[in-house]
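Please review this one:
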Amino acid sequence: MFSVYQLKTGFQNLLRPITNFLAKINVTANMVTILAFILSLVIGIIIYLYSDKCKYILWILPIFLLVRMALNAIDGMLAREHNQKSNLGAIYNELGDILSDTVIYVPFLYVLNANIWLNFIFAILAIITETVGIMGVQINASRRYDGPMGKSDRAFWVSILAIASMYVNVCHKCLCAILSAMIFFLCITIINRIVGALKEAK
């Protein structure tokens, strides 16, 4: 099943000149990872505080999610291609992604008046999805990035929802249906990552 993650290689190639420049001026992968989380927290706060005053402030979400994807790619390339890998960096990277998702998506869905339980379930399953991906390493498999609702896919669909909500009236029932569909695909993603890791471990 297609996942936005499959576009990663091409995206990295576009960002490699920037990554090489950052390495030359001694910017580290950990710095980029921490910056991505801090910016995510700031964006979440802005959405929570100001989206009711100007609905077009939600444009900040898809724009930032693209920037965050770039930062995530850059920190990975700095680590792999510029000899900056470390155990602490691995922890920062995984924990930073999970926390960044939470501090962006929960406020966004809250201001859209999404069902509180669906919002909660979506946030928990997003955490579980990434945790299961990490677990592959524990059973001698690779870190799993299977879709169809991985980190990049969530960013894409939440961006579409943010843009749509600024220009059309997304009714409560429609929002619940969309969120339920995303939750369903998160469950499929969790299963795919578990099955993929077990097959690889064999």
Observations:
- The longest helix spans residues 172-201.
- The CA atoms of residues 62 and 159 lie 5 Å apart.
- The chain has seven helices and no strands.
